[in-house]
Amino acid sequence: MKSVDVLTMNVKIEEVADRISHMETFLSPNVHYIFVESRQSEDSAVRTASCLTEQYTFDWDKIMTSLNLSDNVHILSQPVHWFPEVAKRMWPIFHEAHSVLANVDSETMKYFWGFCRWTGKEKDLKELYEDFRSYNDTSTVEAILFVTSVLERSLGNVYLLRGKTVPFLLRDLLATSELKSILGTIPTIFLQLLVGTPLSFNARNLVWHGFLHPAEIAPSLATALFVAVASIGQLLSAELASIPHRPQASDLSELAKHMEPPPGDLVPHAVLSVLTESPLIPSRHIAFWTSALQHYHRGSWGRCCLVALPQLEHLARVAYCVAHNCPSRLLTAESTTRYLTLDDLLDTSDTSMLFLLGEGLLQLLRDLLSLPTGPRLRDRLSHGEVDLADIPSCLAGHLLGAATAIALRFRASSTQPYSNYTSRFHNIAILKTAILQTAKSITMWKQCPRPPETPWPSWNDVVNVNKDVCSLYQHLTKYLTATLTHEKHVDDADNWSRLEDLPNILKVFLSSVHIPIMPIPKSNMEAITLLRQTIDSIEAINSNVTSSLEMKIQLLVTHKLRSRQRITYGRFLNVVPRLEAVLKCVIIIVSVHLFEMSMVHTITERDQATYIRFLRTVLQFVALTASSSTHEKNRWEEIDTLSRQFCQQMLQNKHLVPMKHTVGTCK
Fold first, then answer.
1. CA–CA dist 38, 18 (Å, integer)
2. High-pLDDT (> 90) share of the chain, %
């Protein structure tokens, strides 16, 4: 930052920090009334007839009477003033549930947890309930975070008994006729009031977006959610059909492997010190970060993420209000006003947030939270798509690291974590990784076993049969080496033209590929898709060739190849080295065009229609080769002919490489 920018930013920080320090709540007036003001204490609550059954579940008939509901009421058509009054009548029901369950022994509760079996999460619910009963600063919030995610996922499973596509949002799911026909009108309305409309409690959204501080959340609300889950299970026990359970996401550990380990200095007292001293974090919210750090260092990484995610969003929201000098947007919005969402906070077209957080930190946040091919931690956890036990330490560590990095951006510090971070889950980053893996796979063909009398041929042997592949390779490597020399990655370009060195060449070359923080131009999206499909097809060819090499040599040594099969095997062995050279040319073509697009060269500058046709030609060749190289087809001579034709076609195409480079010749 320039010094004048730092001065301006410091003034903004002081203004917002002062505003935060005087804010008693981040809830708007109507939301605060429903959540806090209308809540009577358990002792002073208006007593009503018991709304619990002998099994400690909700008695829906008595709830209908207590809330003065009719069986045909449609709550979304009710006037705005109706909801605070109903919410006020719901609190005694919550308090009763909390008071009764607090005195039930664990043996009796076994039946209660049996009603929760429909979720498939009864063990986790029981564990969270036991921790919730400790009533520490954050246990109520943790319970609501977890139960609402389980409830949403499980109700989606129930919906599939009669519906086809589960609505993405919980409020839309609760408004479906399919769910109402299964659960009944009053249970559905009760859930809508509790978690399904911004006009009422909206408990799910308020906790998951980090608006509430511990004192604003009554433990009885969490107890009511546990009872609601068991009560739905009791209703569903009459269903004859078994409830389908959609599989949980299981790729988080694999995704985490694409990331470096989190910062090594995530020591509890050090991180907590940074967060506590940050003007962006209200003192009432520090308890959440303390809890998240405790979970992290106990190895409960899912619980760590559960607590940290809403607070990270709140921290980002405060940063946004600093960047845009709009402290009023820290409040929850009324039902008629749109509040700041995570998508708003991570919008790459917002230059103010980009300036404030820095490109590296914003790329990390997008990697963790929003990119479709990344972990999408907030979405998956809040919608119940992932088991807490499946969240690896790496992702939890990066959440804490991201919070620390945001806090450090607002204080004089020589340490700025993630300032050099580049995305691992952007489309371009994923394609880079796939290119390098595929190039390495192709290079390993020569290490597969072959008959002693048919060794892997030399480069000259390959060229003697297909001279065009030499011309094509030299043409492409001339572009690579010129770029490498220009980028000062190599001193002597002539040493970077050997076919066997391609993985190392591409590793250096692709390091120059910039991962843009801004959205990819629409004109380039189709091109990137075609490049990715091309690499996927080469990987399919690799799988076909590798398995054929391993299988055929085994059949040969065990004398199981018939005469004609041995002839086909010989042709196959002769074609594979030439195919390797051609496919490596294709990999270079993909790399070159990825590099060009990362340099913000839009396709429209080069006649989009003909350029896309060029990429489709490349894809068509590898896709046809993948199809012809399967065990069933085994068309190696056709593949060889196709390869020679492809090389000739590429040498004549003006889109092969940028026009500033000239064609090399093979001597």
1. 29
2. 59
Taking only the tens place, the pLDDT of each residue in 432-487 is 999 999 999 999 999 998 998 888 888 888 888 888 999 999 889 888 878 877 65
Backbone angles phi, psi at 134, to 5 degrees: -75, -20
Q: What are phi and psi of 431, to 5 degrees?
A: -65, -40
Burial class (CB in 10 A: 0-12, 13-18, 19+), 359: buried
Q: Where are the domains of the chain?
A: 38-236, 252-408, 427-651
Q: What would the pLDDT profile of 481-527 be if each residue is shown by its tens digit?
A: 788 776 554 444 444 446 667 888 898 889 888 888 877 777 788 89
Long-range contact pairs involving 352-358 (C-beta distance under 8 Å, separation at least 24): 352/323, 352/324, 353/319, 353/320, 353/323, 354/517, 355/1, 355/5, 355/323, 356/9, 356/319, 356/322, 356/323, 356/409, 357/319, 357/406, 357/409, 358/409, 358/416, 358/418, 358/419
**pLDDT tens figures, 274-330:** 999 888 898 899 999 999 999 999 999 999 999 999 999 999 999 998 888 887 788
> Do residues 646 and 465 make contact, with C-beta atoms less than 8 angstroms apart?
no
Q: Rounded to whole angstroms, how far apart are CA atoms 587 and 477?
A: 11
- Give the HSE-up count for residue 163: Cα atoms under 13 Å, Cβ half-sphere: 19
pLDDT the model gives residue 414: 66
Question: In whole angstroms, how large is the CA radius of gyration of the chain?
Answer: 31
Question: Which own/partner pairs from 45-52 qualify as long-range (CB within 8 Å, at least 24 positions apart)?
Answer: 45/91, 45/92, 45/95, 46/92, 47/92, 48/89, 48/92, 48/93, 48/96, 50/96, 51/93, 51/96, 51/97, 52/96, 52/97, 52/100, 52/227
